Every structure is written in C-alpha cells, then in structure tokens.
Amino acid sequence: MDDFHMLLPSSSSRVSASPGFTLNTVANLQTQFHSHNVNHEMKAADHNQIQYSDHPKSVYDKGNSYNSGENDQAKPDKKGGKKEMIKRQRYAFQTRSQVDILDDGYRWRKYGQKIVKNSKFPRSYYKCTHKGCNVKKQIQRNSRNEEIVVTTYEGRHTHPTDKFTDSFEHIFAQIHTHTTAL
DNA sequence: CGACTTTGACCTGCGC
DNA sequence: GCGCAGGTCAAAGTCG
Q1: Can you tell me where the transmembrane regions are (predicted)?
Q2: Quick check: helix, strand or coil at residue A112?
Q3: For A117 and C6, how far is CA from C1' in angstroms?
C-alpha cells in the first residue's frame, strides 16, 4: 500500500493515506459520509488527481441540464436565467483495488458507460436504486495506474444502507484486502 | 418476471 | 456555427 489517496471534502487538503494510512483516516471519511453536510465540489482533473473547486460552475454541472427532472438539485433554470446553482455534494476518493465496485452497502443500477478521452478505461455511471434516492456515483480506473479506482459519489442518500450499518468499515476492509494482496 | 446490464443514440455545454 | 466531450436515456438483452 504505497499509493492510496483519500480525499476529504471538508477541507481542501488532500490526505495521503500511505504509508501512514490509519483507521483514524477512515473514521474521518466515515464522518464525512454520514453527516452529509459538506458542499464542496470536487473535480477529477487529469483522471489522476482530484481537486476541489469552490466555483459553483464546474465540469460536474455540465450534464445536469439534461436530467429528466428527477434530479433537480443543481439543474439550472432553463426558462429563467437563474444562474446560481445549488452546490451538489460530491465525495471522491481513490482506492487501490482490483475490483471496480466497492460494496458500500447500497444498491446501484448502472445507467451508462463512457469512454473518456485520454483514458484507456471507460467511466461507469451508477444510480442508487432505492426509491426516491437520487444519489449517483461514477467509477473510473486510473489510466496511469490501473490499480487505482476513482469513485465519485454525488448527492445524499435518503435512506440507510441496505446491508451494513457501518459501510465504510466494510469498504476499508475491502481496500485492505486487495491492497495487502498486492 | 423483475431487476439489472449493455450500448447506441441523443442532449448540452464549451472551445475554436 | 461546428465539432468534440461528457452525461443520460431507453430499448434490448441477460440473469437469477
């Protein structure tokens, strides 16, 4: 485990989790996910790094105007020039894992896959299948380091996990499992 | 048969 | 205006 980065949305700092990756870091991340009170936007730049942007208009807002109305949190007002967008809650982190999809306790339905420029791996798009929950996530493998998977969550779950009460310990368990196997 | 995945088409924003 | 890139839709296929 020598190249694991975890990015916490509560500040602009990037936490490098290796080799000093601790359970404290995981607890920190869990806190962020469970509290759902962070409004920073995150941008995966160069499909290798993830940065934060405090600008309300970021690359992540581009596609929202095409939504079919179910996810209107950040949808710009088509008719009326309401340019101020509500900041969406985004959480992204990189994991070093051989599996693309971490089992975070929620059920996801894949709704798209795209080849991304300058990346040899496709980006997959998932929605939470829980009724009324509009959380999405994107999963993409790092083209420069195939062992790294970048997962970006968008929105907040309106329901508890289906399987786990402490989903991120489970994630960590998977990360640990796969990284130690390297 | 319902839930999920696949994949081509479509839409939008942006840069030139 | 045009083309590109990213994001989403939705029909068809697959699976349990």
Answers
A1: none
A2: strand
A3: 9
Query: CA A111, C1' B4: Å apart?
Result: 10
Two structure tokens written together for A21: 């990756």
Provide the CA A21 distance to its chain's centre, in angstroms: 19
Cβ(A94)–Cβ(A7) below 8 Å: yes
Helix (H, G, I), strand (E, B) or coil at A8: coil
Q: How many C-beta atoms surround the C-beta of residue A101 within 10 A?
A: 15
Q: Is the pLDDT at A69 greater than 90, yes or no?
A: no
CA distances for A69 relative to A62, A74, A77, A78, A171, angstroms: 15, 11, 11, 12, 31
Residue found under tokens 């970048």:
A150
CA of A116 to C1' of C8 (A): 15
**How many angstroms separate the CA atoms of A137 and A123, rounded?**
10
User: Closest nucleotide to A152's CA, by C1' atom?
Assistant: C7
pLDDT, tens digit (0-9, with 9 covering 90-100), for A80-116: 333 333 445 677 777 777 676 666 778 899 999 999 8
